[in-house]
Specification:
The complex is a heterodimer of chains A (about 110) and B (about 120). By secondary structure, chain A is mainly β. Chain A is about 0% helix and about 55% strand. Chain A has strands at about 5, 10-15, 20-25, 30-35, 45-50, 55, 65-70, 75-80, 85-95, 100-105, 110. Classes of the chains: A mainly beta (about 110), B mainly beta (about 120).
Chain lengths: ~110, ~120
């Protein structure tokens, strides 16, 4: 069974479009995250939700809006996509009872043309 | 703010040999976690090993071990008997000892394993 899943795995779209990436975890974790990995492979946190509440919001354009319908899901919606949004986006989850280990999804490669 | 530094952008090792990847970090906290993650070409982030800062004993997972020097804020990863499948990008990460704290990742070290 997949622990942390993301859909889609690949996303190619035009500038200016709006797109969403979905994330689901079946680990029973309370906390979920979105990370962005750019072309140089640098990995940076974007958002973190704990029990559906936003707790970390790094300096991210407000075109990015996370939504957590329940603690097993954390979706990322991006408005007015720009070329610089092209990256791999990783979802992750964690639970304090597991030494705060984060488990990552397979990533979504977003290419904005 | 916490920072994590991996000073070696690229490393290479001969198959069956041993290699050590460096990581240093900066924090004012006394309790925290440290991790090494592996990212192969498949892009999947895979946990390699983790260390609790309050534990003096270095963590070990099969061929992977760490040298944790708390006073020096150093957390290196040693890979013994390197295998072709170890080729990947390795990320060092720091995480506060608090629920839902964010992780800070280093910039990664690309490891090449030569047959």
């Amino acid at each position: 069974d997949t622990a942390v899943s993301q859909t889609p795995k690949y996303l190619v779209t035009q500038m200016g479009n709006d797109k969403s990436i979905k994330c689901e975890q079946n680990l029973g974790h309370d906390t979920m995250y979105w990370y962005k990995q750019d072309s140089k492979k640098f990995l940076k946190i974007m958002f973190s939700y704990n029990n559906k509440e936003l707790i970390i919001n790094e300096t991210v354009p407000n075109r990015f809006s996370p939504k957590s319908p329940d603690k097993a899901h954390l979706n990322l919606h991006i408005n007015s996509l720009e070329l610089g949004d092209s990256a791999v986006y990783f979802c992750a989850s964690s639970h304090p009872g597991e030494q705060e280990t984060q488990y990552f999804g397979p990533g979504t490669r977003l290419l904005v043309l | 703010a916490q920072t994590v530094t991996q000073s070696q952008p690229e490393m290479s090792v001969q198959e069956a040999e041993t290699v050590t990847l460096s990581c240093t970090y900066d924090t004012s906290e006394s309790d925290y976690y440290l991790f090494w993650y592996k990212q192969p070409p498949s892009r999947q982030m895979i946990l390699v090993i983790r260390q609790e800062a309050y534990k003096q004993q270095n963590a070990t997972e099969n061929r992977f071990s760490v040298n944790f020097q708390k006073a020096a804020k150093s957390f290196s990863l040693k890979i013994s008997d390197s295998q072709l499948g170890d080729a990947a990008m390795y990320f060092c990460a720091y995480r506060r000892f608090a629920n839902a704290g964010k992780s800070t990742f280093g910039d990664g070290t690309t490891l090449t394993v030569k047959p």
